[in-house]
Amino acid sequence: MSHNLNGKAALVTGGSRGIGREIAKRFAADGATVAVTYNANSTGADETVAAIEKAGGTAFALQADLLDAGSIPDLFEKLDRELAERKGGNALDILVNNAGNEGWANLSDATPEAWDAIFAVHARAPFFMVQSALSRFSDDARIINLSSGLSTRPLPSAPVYSAAKAAINTLTHVLAMELGARGITVNAVAPGWTATDMNTAVRENADMLKGIEADTALGRFGETSDIAAVVAFLASDDGRWVTGQVIEASGGYRL
């Protein structure tokens, strides 16, 4: 790796598995001190930290239930203490809003409770994460929100999730305008079909897998490392002139 994040502090929400874990591992390999949040999966978060430390990186885990926006200030107080111990201050250089929850409910099945839960994690939490981080961000900090290909090509089987991801795209644009004067960039990465435990059933269905691969220009399912590479670029100095963008990382799905 390039180690171009040496000395940086990064916070990755939802880092106990999947794309969040891979982003955290990539940041650490590039030299950053990485904090990962988890809700209930403490074992997964510990595994992320252990994998990073085994590779020679620095990481720690923090519990946070992002369904509850009121918990976010407390999360940042815990982050302050951990960063002060490790780095002598609480400056935050990179924030990745990756945490999510499942949203496979169609128009007939969706409930107000499901709507609230999906929007709370995917749209509301990133807003208040940034709000709490404002006084901690270094100049030239990076904010990267995880969107989805469904934000622009929504599925009837996931209308609420699709709408929440469209909301994070709009929030990305607004925050880029708001924070640009400080040199802070704000972008979103929108994965396409990516191999995680959330879509194991899809990948185990030979016909569905074949169809997805046939509809993808690069001819395969994405890997979490593919997404982490795009996020790492945006977090690096090489991404300094990119802001307010939603970058689809789908291998050319249905071009």
TrEMBL record:
Coiled coil: none annotated. Keywords: Oxidoreductase. It holds the Pfam family adh_short_C2. PROSITE patterns: ADH_SHORT. Residues 8-196 form the Ketoreductase domain. The keyword Mitochondrion does not apply. The keyword Cell membrane does not apply. It comes from the Bacteria. PANTHER family: OXIDOREDUCTASE, SHORT-CHAIN DEHYDROGENASE/REDUCTASE FAMILY (AFU_ORTHOLOGUE AFUA_5G02870), SHORT-CHAIN DEHYDROGENASE_REDUCTASE FAMILY PROTEIN. Belongs to the short-chain dehydrogenases/reductases (SDR) family. This is SDR family oxidoreductase.
